[in-house]
Amino acid sequence: MTWNSTAAAALTATAAVGMLLAGCASAGVTSAGEPGRRQEVVPHGHVEGAEETAEPQPRLIIADGDTGTAHVLDLTTGKVSAVGGSGSDVGSGIDGALSGDGRFAYLTAPGGTATRVIDGGAWTVDHGDHSHYYRAEAREIGTVAGGRPENAFGDAGVTAVTFTGGSARVLDRAALDRGDIVETTAIGGGGRHGTVVPYGGHLLVPAVGPGGKATGGVEVRARDGGPISGIGEPCPEPRGAAVTRRGAVLGCADGALLVTEEGGAFSGAKIRYPGKTSEGDRVREFAHRPGSTTLAARAGDTGIWLLDVSARKWTLLRTGPAVAVTAAGDGAPVLALTADGVLHAYDPGTGEETATAELLAAPLPGSGDLPTPAIQVDAARAYVNDPAAKAIYEIDYDDDLRRARTFELGFTPASMVETGR
């Protein structure tokens, strides 16, 4: 479908929803009905008050760098709306000030001791062979105790929000869907590094020893925080994480740890860096298109790391330093934004630069006076925030980085995350 749907396409979309509902009827929840009446089947992922749609409903949740107000940009309609109140300590950049789990965004509240929870009002429920898409009103639903959110990962059961101090709060996902904040457990910091990741019905937690010093181990815990087992393969100095169809990935000092689960048993496989890697070039965080098994990360001033999770292989693209990178998917371009305001596309196989686009209104100052832009990517488009121009650019990365749309905001987009994917 195009952005401007025709009447015929709308009829097709309606039929598609009907077929999806029929296909999931056997696994849905049947509501009680009156005798003699056909019972209604509630589809997977349904939340009271939400509307199911035939296509994804992508939205950007954006933090205003001046006032801390959260805004939602509906990428289907182009409409921008403020959500909830304001917070003066949102900070700059996406690194710890704003994180998302696919539906909810977590951003620093005033004072820096709590995190605001914003429901983006758009989400996807993935069933492997098909997906369900929902939309509802965006809203702010409350706060969670903790500092600046560094990462948020969620599944059907819980969302784990990890803060820069190493602590984490695990939130019941069904309660979040209802608009309530219910903690299932809290994990202390104490110098802990690494991210708490829900995976396989459990939690993956970087282990710490006496005095809060990281041991390099990874614990498997129950959703209430109780210990279950450990991963045999270590992950020294964990930094960064991602969840893919092939397993959960944790960044380690010596490469990456791929954690998989089968029949309730967890195992880990190390994907080591090729050759010696300096501390400055190791991965700090991963970026990728949701659902993809190709991950990208900055490699210090050297370039871009690509991790093919399926092949369990690293590739180093020697592109030079970048301020933001991401991978658009298996075989799709690797994107990098450089400090001069230029967006670059690279072939993931050869490392060859395939396209460039002068994007930002001004080069990024070295003093940090402006927030660092981010790149969000989905199956069709990439989005780059331009704090100086108070705009967000929609990029067709499969068409030589063509600028498809420009969203003039009227406020400084300090950081953003995409929901509904």
CA-CA gap between termini: 16 Å
Structural class: mainly beta
What proportion strand? 35-45%
Q: What's the pLDDT, averaged over the residues?
A: 85
What is the highest CATH level, the class of the domain at 284-416?
Mainly Beta
Low-confidence stretches: 1-23, 25-43, 88-96
Shape: globular
Number of helices: 2
Measured on Cα atoms, how large is the radius of gyration? 21 Å
Q: Let me know the number of strands.
A: 36
For the biggest β-sheet, the strand order reads 6-5-4-36
Largest β sheet strand count, sense and barrel closure: 4 strands, antiparallel
According to CATH, the homologous superfamily of the domain at 284-416 is YVTN repeat-like/Quinoprotein amine dehydrogenase
CATH architectural arrangement of the domain at 284-416: 7 Propeller
What is the CATH fold-level name of the domain at 284-416?
A: Methylamine Dehydrogenase, Chain H
Helix content: under 10%
SSE blueprint:
Elements lengths: L6 H17 L5 E2 L10 E2 L8 E3 L5 E6 L5 E5 L5 E4 L14 E3 L3 E5 L5 E6 L2 E5 L4 E5 L3 E7 L3 E6 L3 E6 L4 E5 H6 L4 E5 L9 E3 L2 E7 L5 E8 L5 E4 L10 E4 L2 E6 L2 E8 L2 E8 L21 E6 L3 E6 L4 E5 L6 E4 L6 E4 L4 E5 L6 E6 L16 E3 L4 E5 L4 E6 L5 E7 L4 E7 L2
Antiparallel strand pairs: 1-2, 3-11, 4-5, 4-36, 5-6, 7-8, 8-9, 9-12, 10-11, 13-14, 14-15, 15-16, 17-18, 18-19, 19-20, 21-22, 22-23, 23-24, 25-26, 26-27, 28-29, 29-30, 30-31, 32-33, 33-34, 34-35
Protein name: ABC transporter
Keywords: Signal
Organism: Microtetraspora glauca
